[in-house]
Amino acid sequence: MTLLLDRVTFRYHRWSRPVLSHLTYEVPGRGLTILLGPNGAGKSTTMALLAGTAAPTAGKVLLTGSRLSSTSREYRRHVAWLPQKVPSSRQLTAREYVAYVAWLKGENRSDAWAGAGSALDQVGLGEQQGDKTARLSGGQLRRVGIACALAHDARVILLDEPTAGLDPHQRTVFRDVLREVTEKTPVLMSTHDIVDLADEADTVTLMDGGRVRHHGGTPSFLDHAHPEAAPARRAESAYSVLMGLGRAQ
Ligand SMILES: Nc1ncnc2c1ncn2[C@@H]1O[C@H](COP(=O)(O)OP(=O)(O)OP(=O)(O)O)[C@@H](O)[C@H]1O
């Protein structure tokens, strides 16, 4: 079961130019897919459509297999979304917050509470579960966001730039959590951290101007790198080559 944008057109305002035009894109049904692209490429818009928080102007967004549409409440139960800015509630503890989100997604109270505890353990925040979310660091808050996804047993997880602004330690912790999560649940993650993440990803999707410019397994993405690119720079080089940017080595 995965998510499909089926010939989707989207505009933010009635008379504005469409950000996406007749875009068909299927999120891979396993592992980690990273969504790359320059600022304004349409990554967050695509994520919001897949999350069901924005509705297409034309076309459909579906959960394949079930054919559930993103406009249905049932669809959103199966999809977890971590937006760029993780919302927090100053009054709630980490566990209360995760349990509340799981309850909103349809879990009953006791399952939501139990699920919140184990999800916070899984992301390494077991000891902070009683802390108010307002006291957590940006990296910890992002892990709380992932715990929300885990606590309600989503079929697909969408993460919008989850590593932006994390320090190197938080980044490592986050990657370890991600590795574990993707063993069970497919994750689509937008990021500008190509160097960090190309090694981790199973699939790379590159967007530009609202279109998918490249989509395929990570080795096929890296094959585009300049032949003389240093091993540590191959991902950056492949990105530059595919985007038609100047220096590719
Ligand atoms: N709320 C909005 N109202 C109008 N236009 C918007 C809105 N949000 C995004 N856009 C426009 O839609 C286009 C795609 O933006 P989007 O945020 O999806 O790109 P992105 O690839 O996520 O960029 P970034 O890497 O900067 O986050 C851009 O031209 C942007 O200006």
From TrEMBL:
It holds the Pfam family ABC_tran. InterPro entries: AAA+_ATPase (IPR003593), ABC_transporter-like_ATP-bd (IPR003439), ABC_transporter-like_CS (IPR017871), P-loop_NTPase (IPR027417). The keyword ATP-binding applies. Transmembrane segments: none annotated. Keywords: ATP-binding, Nucleotide-binding, Transport. The keyword Cell inner membrane does not apply. GO terms for molecular function: ATP binding. Residues 3-234 form the ABC transporter domain. PANTHER family: ABC TRANSPORTER, ATP-BINDING PROTEIN. Belongs to the ABC transporter superfamily. This is ATP-binding cassette domain-containing protein. It comes from Streptomyces luteolus. The lineage of its organism: Bacteria, Bacillati, Actinomycetota, Actinomycetes, Kitasatosporales.
